[in-house]
Amino acid sequence: MVEKDPQMMSQNELLPGNEPLFSCYIFAVKTDSYAGNFEREMCAFMTGVVGECGVGDIVAGLFAQEYPGENSWEDKVMQVADDHGCHRPVTIDNESVMIFLNDYPTNEDISFLRKRALLFIMDPRITASGIRIKIKGCELIKYDVERHQSTLASYPSLEITDV
């Protein structure tokens, strides 16, 4: 019998326990364009938060000018590692910009994010860079990260004579 290496984790097999590793919320802005062309800039404009890669830091500076002082969104937005291990506050789902939030947002937070998304597509500093999109709507999503594993390789047991 071949044993599975517990160090090899992937997204195929649910581990015992079925409970999520963690939960967070996602504020999704649904657009009419592929979101991978502007998601980090939109997140920076809406929240003033950028990821480790620094993409959107100029736009985050605009946020800081409009809202001087401590940025409360730094505590509200969750940084999540992407496929390359770079922590980012945002991801995409085709035409949706998906901002990770630590906690369930207040009504004021949702109103603020909706307003900032609309201002993003209207801001001449943003549209001058070539970004031309329409917003179809917004969604609040609960996101559960579950435990998964898959076997990447199997090896037979060694016998004393094999050593």
Q: What is the makeup of the main sheet?
A: 4 strands, antiparallel
Total count of strands = 8
Strand order of the largest sheet: 5-6-2-7
Distance between the termini: 19 Å
What would your notes on this structure say?
With 163 residues, the chain is an alpha+beta fold.
Could you give a short description of this structure?
This protein is an alpha+beta fold. The protein has one domain (23-147). Helix content is 26%, strand content 24%.
Topology:
Elements: E1 13-14, E2 22-31, H1 39-47, H2 57-66, H3 73-76, E3 80-81, E4 87-88, E5 90-93, E6 96-101, H4 107-122, H5 124-127, E7 135-145, E8 148-149
Antiparallel strand pairs: 1-8, 2-6, 2-7, 3-4, 5-6
Give descriptors for this structure:
163 residues, alpha+beta, 4-stranded antiparallel sheet, two-stranded antiparallel ribbon, 5 helices, 8 strands, elongated, disordered N terminus
